[in-house]
Amino acid sequence: MNPRGSVFSAAYALAFFTFLFGPLIIMVITAFNSSRFPRVTPWECFTTGWFNVLITNDRLMSGLLSSLFIGIGVIVVAVPVGLAGALALSELSARLRATLYTVLIVPILIPGVVLGISTIVFWGQIGRTLGGPAQAFFYNGYFLTIAGQVTFISAYAMLVFIARLQRFDATQTEAALDLGASPGQAFRKILLPFLAPAIGSAAFITLLASFENYNTTVFTILSGNTFTTALASKVRHGTDPSLSALAVIIISITLIGALTHEAYIRRKTLLDSGKAEQSAIFGNPVLRLLTHPGAVLALLLCIAGGLVWLGSKHDSSVCEAGILEEKRAIQRQLQEEQRSRIDAQKKAGGQTQTPAEGGAGNPSPFGGAFTGGLAPESAAPEPAAPSNPSPFGGAFNPGTLAPAPE
Amino acid sequence: MGNFRTAFNSFAGRHGMGVALFVAIAVAAWVILLIVLPQLSMLDYSFRHNLPASQIGGPDDTYTLENYRYFMFGNDDGLNTLDIGILLRTLIAAVFVTILDVMICYPIAFILAHSASGVSARLMVIGLIIPFWVNEILRAFAFRVLFGATGLINSVGLGMGLWDAPVDFIRADVALYSGLAYAYILLMIFPIYNAVEALDRAQIEAARDMGAPWWRVHWRIVLPIAKPGIASGATMVFMLTSGALAAPQILGGPSSLWFTQVIYQWFNQSSNWQRGSAYAVILLLVCIAFVTLMMRVFKVSVGEIGK
């Protein structure tokens, strides 16, 4: 590649990964700002309190339990079904294979909303027809969610198995059969062990997909909640940084997992290459122990645990009280100014005007923004909230209040 | 049917009767109980009246086109411009997001396949995957933090004096489109990467040696190879974007609805499942028709998807 081209690729890759990670990094930072609205500027206090708020959220935590239950159910059903699909595809004639492949892959493409609706409508009808305990069983948030999710998550599992099966050498089975193994034995002793790693990754992808799913689950869970639907309703009805705290936890777990996995892969390729003994890292017993995936995992967990412990010791209440006092002072000052302005107006015009009490001491988060609306004339010179289209703008942004004349 | 029987027999011969039965039953249950019957049942439901539970199955429970008529004409006889408009807007926005994703992902897939090597390529792959382990809802939330009225972009823009008043990115749907494009990047990159990786570097070198400028190398050599990957990625991104519910609920402006939100409202706020089903059927058919049309235009088959 010519130098200009490689400079361009590097710059593009940099820009791309900034787009990919920027939003996440900013979200992580907001988890530690004491401001009640998740944001980076203005920075108020460093706090770890949002993690507490998160853990004490009962709805999310009970949703977590049902998500785990559903996830296990989906693994138990979707992995075998996906395996069956992949095996069936490997055996069919080309034309039938194309047809079946299309039918099985379509659930991935169907909008999740449509899958959710069709699932509740179908099992609802079955339940109504059967009546009694069957209805209670089929028309139940857990059952419906597992059924709806399995419909398309099985296809993910199937794709994993297809990729693995493509590398399978069918002559191994032939050889086993020639040597007198029964077909069932050949399957258990040859094909199944070959597929074992794929079963692991399929189970993992299945769990993740089930946990993450919103579009289907929001219909099929009926009046209940999974972790993701509880999260979504929390985001829709007003946000606070405890969600950022959740993101911090998820990203940390992901990073620990990714690094451990990387250590595992490195070690495996090194051992497989046969040159492990000559490598500088593997030759040294201390380094060899340190780069073992287990050691990497333990080290990372220790670091994470240490940070959590440090974080739980951190107390930001003094700093937060300071910020609150500062805000109150600014509000008092504004109140004073307004009062004196009204007095001046009264003296000047002799007319009575409704006292504007917008921003001052108003507990409502909208207070600041409405100041301008309630008392447009008297408040005009003050920079509190004019021309702010967001209802939260004024109240949450002491930065715009600060430049008020001393 | 005969084909299935031969396949079943050869399968039983190779892997044993137990395995063959398991595969046959599992696949049949998947196709019939989970895929085909629910869709048919939803289709059937969409042609029915919204009756109270006691009257279901009674003499009033007849088939009707009312739910579809409502989508076209609303309560009076004029065109139902509101719902039709939302559907069109959703489709256009989904096309826009898909094109955006192709433009973002094609260069990075090419770089990943042909410029990066060794450690940097591995790092890039890990870097691509990590953001997608974070919950979809949280990713949308991150864009809300970024684009909100007091968000970082507004603070920086105001601080640098680029604009005077906070810009409402949410209302302008900027947040929604970037959030959606972000959400499905991975589904676009990997198909394109798989397709482009098959390209022999010597072909690029040859074209360059013969004096082709970089854009012609891409237009004549890389793009034709990448086409199935792009088609497969674009299909997935389009279908998922037009069927997205979480991102529009979280990032959508107050005045703009996604078609899935209309369906959601019929179900959860109006409790009119029949009409919701009809709308879901409409969404499904329109999306499938559109994707099929596009595949015809670009000459790709469904079998390429997911590979």
**What fraction of the residues of chain A are assigned to beta strands by DSSP?**
under 5%
What is the top-level CATH class of chain B? Mainly Alpha
Give the count of helical stretches of chain B. Answer: 14
Q: Please identify which CATH superfamily of chain B we are dealing with.
A: MetI-like
Oligomeric organization of the protein chains:
heterodimer
Tally of individual domains of chain B = 1
Which fold name corresponds to the CATH topology of the largest domain in chain A? MetI-like fold
Order of helices and strands of chain B: HHHHHHHHHHHHHH
Summarize model confidence as the mean pLDDT of chain B: 82
CA(first)-CA(last) distance of chain A: 62 Å
Q: Which overall shape of chain A is indicated by the principal axes computed on the Cα atoms?
A: extended
Structural class of chain A: mainly alpha
Structural description of this entry:
The complex is a heterodimer of chains A (406) and B (307). With 406 residues, chain A is mainly α. Chain A has 4 domains: 3-53, no CATH class; 54-240, MetI-like fold (Orthogonal Bundle), CATH 1.10.3720.10; 262-315, no CATH class; 317-401, no CATH class. Chain A has 20 helices and no strands. Chain A has helices spanning 3-30, 49-55, 58-91, 94-109, 112-130, 132-138, 141-165, 171-178, 183-212, 217-220, 227-236, 242-273, 280-283, 285-290, 293-313, 317-349, 367-374, 376-379, 393-396, 398-401. Chain A is extended, with a radius of gyration of 30 Å. The termini of chain A are far apart. The model of chain A is unreliable at 352-406 (pLDDT under 50). By secondary structure, chain B is mainly alpha-helical. Chain B has one domain (73-304): Orthogonal Bundle (MetI-like fold). In chain B, 72% of the residues lie in helices and 0% in strands. Chain B is built from 14 helices and no strands. Chain B has helices at 2-15, 17-46, 66-73, 81-115, 118-129, 136-147, 152-159, 174-183, 185-197, 201-209, 214-242, 246-251, 259-268, 273-298. The longest helix of chain B has 35 residues, at 81-115. The radius of gyration of chain B is 24 Å and the shape is globular. At the A-B interface, helix 1, helix 3, helix 4, helix 5 and helix 7 of A face helix 1, helix 2, helix 4, helix 5 and helix 6 of B.
